[in-house]
Queue: 4 jobs
Job 1
Amino acid sequence: MNSKKYILFALLLSSTMVCAQHRKAKPIARKNVRNAATANPMNARQQENFNAMLPNTQSIFVVDSTIVDKNRVVETIPLSPKYGKFVSYNSFFDTDTQPNQYVFINGFANKCYYTELGKDSVQHLYTRNKLGDGWGEPHRISEIDSKLKHISYPFLSSDGQTLYVSGIADDGLGKRDIYVAKYNADEGTYFEPENIGLPFNSNDDDFIYVESDAERFAWFATTRRQPEGKACVYAFAMPEQRTNYNADEMSESRLKSLASLIRIRDTWPTPEIRERAQKELNAIKEEANTRVAATDKVNFVVNDDVVYTDIKSFRSDATRQMYYEVMRLQNDSKNKQRTLNTLREKYHNTADNNRTALTRDILQLEQQLDEARQQLKRLEAQLRTAENKLIKKY
């Protein structure tokens, strides 16, 4: 009797294993890859938004990714103080009412951006200007928070005109998405925020975007495919200009994989270029780890008798901003030179019939590099002239 039961059990087990193998042989895995845009299912509206964004997925070069506790994302991003800093809301306002909320103070420390919970239980976006040793009255940026809910992590780019925030809106993909809004100087308001699209957003929580434009790196954080309480911080190389993947030249499954950042290796131009970028990123991290007021130190020759070694030496916010632009152009020229060296090396190692396109790219980049150097030279001269006038005035 026991023998019969054993045989019956063996037959059932064998049948189950065969069925399991048969199921594995079906194209279920491929279906999951095609739908791997997010870990959680999207509703009909979110799926429609995702499909609309997909053809315009931005081509980015993700250099590195780091998984951290969600409440440690800010301290993980090695942002130089010259671009600003995040301060906890509770410490900035000396309260305990809003844990895990941040105030962003710009690089000049004369503006701050933050969100505050209103009586309607919605986070509203505010800004304040520095007045003497304190901060002025709050101004609600209604043109942004009238569209977005649950706003957090405002970040003002170094151009002083571009504001990134995270929030929830009808054109989003689920939880918070990252949005960008440009300042309208003529009206003194911001234009309506726009979703920055894929691969930055998903239908999980995408909640911070930060740029270090002089160094040509940026970071964003997301909880996609992460366990509870964790987030992945992606570091990517900022391109000279935005380009999208060519949807007509790849399969839908590959485009969705790139839009979802399933494998960051797929975004690398070459392993060699990624290795060089990783070294540059590591240098930024190392500087952040060892920084002791290093961002205040400069080396700028104003005239034969005056050399500035501290950012505070500049006599106005305008000339300090010019100095940051000088630094950005210097780094921009260095990056262009590195790219040019890579293209020239590639030119010498490629077949003759593939050199035409490389020749065009090399000539174009040589012209851009020359223009950048000329612009840098003019700006340095303008900065010296402006600062010398201030020295004579005071």
Job 2
Amino acid sequence: MKRTTTLAAVVLAAALLPVSASMSSASPAGSGAARPSADDDSRSADHRGKDHGGKDRRYTDAKGMPSPLVVAHRGASGYRPEHTIAAYELAVAMGADYIEPDLVMTKDGQLVDRHEPEISGTTDVAAHPEFASRKTTKKLDGVDVTGWFTEDFTLAELRTLRAKERLATVRQRNTIYDGMYQVPTYEEVLQLRERLSRQYNRTIGIIPEIKHSTYFHAKGLNPEPVVVQLTERYGLNKRNAPMWIQSFEITNLKDLRFRHGYKANSTFLAWTGTGPLDGPYDLVSRGDKRLYQDWMTPKGLKEISRFANGIGPEKFFVIPKKADGTLGQPTSLVGDAHRLGLKVIPWTFRNENQFMAKDFQNGTNPADYGKAVQEQVTYLRTGLDGLFTDNPDTGVVARDVLWGRL
């Protein structure tokens, strides 16, 4: 199910269009009068006779989805505050195949969609005097972090907060949407996936990441069975579903598969940092000294293939930068992973200069756009199965270039 060149030509303008979202604390984030909410949609003529709790199975098979995939990293987060319904809606309008929520837990055991347990960078919590006393310092994967943490809030309390742009100095234009959107739950994003699939008459995939599993378990919270229960409820806990669960840890990926009955796809994430804590924290905290780079070797990949279906490496594992900041030559990672049956979908492709090798930068302003299409095409030509991008329209155009359509 490949995109047409017409779509590739028009999605570039979509970033300039507003995406409606309710600002009422009484309704879920994401939809105003111009676009029905998930609750309204469940009562629409299109959905009569179907239980919105996951019994509409028309879009629960990944068969026919394009390759390589365009994965909207936290939604269209280059244009809207990340992890909001508006960011996901815009991503799909731009042609994204998958949307990605990051999952953390609340005090009352609810899965919500935030980049990290600490939420001062992604919400207006600091502006709420009623929560001032909850500011604290905690150890997060061995590092002291100060702020407000989701496990100290009930879902009802989080509903009183509003999302804001995390990279405000890089994406100042996104700040005009600060305060407009609520923090969505995982279930609301699952409902949104169904709604957007029907709206665009194509299967939209979802690729949630369970954040800091070891940390939450130490707090007495257990995200994995809740993830599986909701995944099952919405018809996605099966082989060939448009569903991947990701983690930078290993224990929880194994537990999902072997203890909690998870049947869909999973992927192990890795980044190129080095240091005593730059490995899977669940293992590092128990004395395992392997770094992420050790897991991206043929030996490490073989072990990953026993419990996961793919890897999500930082993009510089695939083509590293040289000492002068320019792009080097592709590594053997893609081929090594494919020989073991592992998919490879690296992160994160962003349009701004500061996130690229020097070859693709335009000018000297770190926040200016670089040669983003050229960069993504260069990486796609290594044989990737997809890529994570904050700018889904750029990913769609890059794929069309790869396919020879532009």
Job 3
Amino acid sequence: MANDETVGRYSSLARAALSGERIVGCGSEALGEGCFGAAGYDDTEGLPEGAVRASLGCGNPLAVAELRAGETVLDLGSGGGIDVLLSARRVGPLGKVYGLDASLDMLELARRHADQAGVTNVELLHGTIEALPLPDRSVDVVISNCVINLSDDKAAVIAEAFRVLRPGGRFGVSDVVTDDGVAVDPGRREAVGRRIGCMAGALSVAGYRELLRQAGFVGVRITMTADHGEGVHSVIVQAVKPAIGPGLEIRPMRDSDAEQVLAIYQAGLDSGQASFETVAPSWEGFTAGKLPHLRYVAADTETGEVVGWVAASRVSARPVYAGVVEHSVYVHPGCQAHGIGRALLAAFIAASEDAGVWTIQSGIFPENTASLVLHQALGFRVVGTRERVGCHRGIWRDVLLVERRSTAIAS
């Protein structure tokens, strides 16, 4: 979590604001250049003056959050409340906005501003961004303005954001990052952090992407908004929790899923229409043949039961094929025709593009029409037929070769 010094600093700023002082969370020379504070907003008309003056962020997450009427929003580190009030305006009376802050003084300041604005769809919560005081799958959008970089456990923050988001929910935050693999004098970089006043151990761009992937997010986009020198940037970070039907959730595959994943695999093999294989491998054999970063399951949110999975294998170790994978997708036989396979495959496609994959391949028996229709609906095309390529249960069978070329990655 953010350390006591950080919470104390922001509490002091809140107390100053409560007494009517003008507060600045970042160095004065950074204002405007990096869209810090109220300078990052163009729609503050009608807000309490104090809420605008107390804005301490490094950007405007609402510029990309695309909030819709009736949605539920969570603002991590809500501070004086400017993003909470703007969100409440956008989601309307049928929507709901939670503001969370670790500083009781900031919460008092935000409540004053909410009362002044006359909003009725806002609830302000005391807590840390590493342990959110909200139920699983309870919000549609998570926003934050230059707060995640203050946490000592950023992996926990991002995992918690994934937990409280509903399937299809969106993550859209402003934050501070550092360049990947750029050698910079630590003292000079620390000086930049002090100058902008909004950085305490920021993630690299690659590090941010990896934590989002580990949590289960897909569709990751990190957009630079300001360059502060020495490899330090303000950014907008966007990602999505994979969408799926009610009562289900798509998340990364775990070792604890082994028994259920292999049982679903075996049920598919027993159908005679999934593969030339007849017996599922051991878990060790399964994991050895699959890429560790492209494995997902669909699970029942009440029981935790796995009802389907998707995973990828490397096509070749040659560098030229680094962006080419072969995938498999299996759904529990009792849960087919519920859109689970489509949701898994859509999530897998998004995750593969995040990972730089430009071609996804697979082989499908011509008789497996359901699989063929599913793949074609999601952009796969038949590129050829391997005739009588193998004998399966005494019958020589053809295999349709399908592939999907990414439209998001130049290939």
Job 4
Amino acid sequence: MKPFASIALFVLLGLVSAVAIGFGPDLSLTQWGYDEEQEKLSERIVIKFSHVVAENTPKGLAVDRFAQLVKTKTNGRVEVQVFANSTLHTEKTEIPALMNGEIQMIAPAFSHLSGTIPQWALLELPYVFRDQQDVENVFQGEIGRMLFATLDQSNMKGMAYWGNGFKQITANRPILMPNDFKGQRIRIIPSKVLDEQFRTLRALPVGSSFNDLYSMLASGEVDGEENTISNVYTKRLYQVQTNMTISNHNYLGYVVIMNQEFWNKLPADIQRDIEEALVEATRFNNALSVSMNENQLEKLKEMDTIDIHEQTQEERTAWRQALQPVYDKFAPSIGKPLMDKINELHQAR
């Protein structure tokens, strides 16, 4: 056994010597298979951004624009992975998933926050936004900052407000005055405020996922719904509804939120790049939402597949008066500070 061991040792020493002589002092990590690209990949920061609407809506396009801007501004150090159309999470699961860190960014509708943070019901009140100027004043002003502050307790960081546009009513019969809602099954985003709004009008609200909406209308499970023109157009709801009233009675907006713990761990320069990208994406979104709703309303008129009625001032006044009880019911839970701010906004113009 000893001669065999000696031979094995001799062979091993020979191999080591050959390697040392053959490669010498020029031996590098690259020659041993070191992959610089793989190292860069391991250092890349990944942000999973989940949302529930189509890619060709104002929000969907803004998320894609944001992802590209982040990639450019960080020189590829940050990758925003976009999951649209509820492919990763639905309206019900996206907020819990964000809070526990499973995903890093979402942009839920205001209605999806008001169930757990009552102050957000403010932005769901009927006719709380009278026009686009009100929207901009709230998003960019003190009210927007006050609402962001309510997210801190839930491991969420408010980053930006994005708009989709004013909501309109669609149905299979004309909806002109409050009495026309009686007995109509209206699909809504699940929300206490929206539920109360339509019950006040003596309609029958039905909460459901956005992605179920078309099939619910097509099957007759519901008679109508409320939505932005861009959603009516891109989801082709005009194929399963005969009437639309341009009422602007509510506003469909989103709050862009990041997981707070994830944000706190990002390097300062990355935080700055993300904030800059969001400013640009927000400007893009808010301009696009206005132009898209205007342009697609004209397309709907040209298609002549759905009868479109523009709400008169008399009708608008009747709707607002009929919906005043919604304010009375939710003002206490929203809180006096925010209600006072809205009153100031309405009195200022």
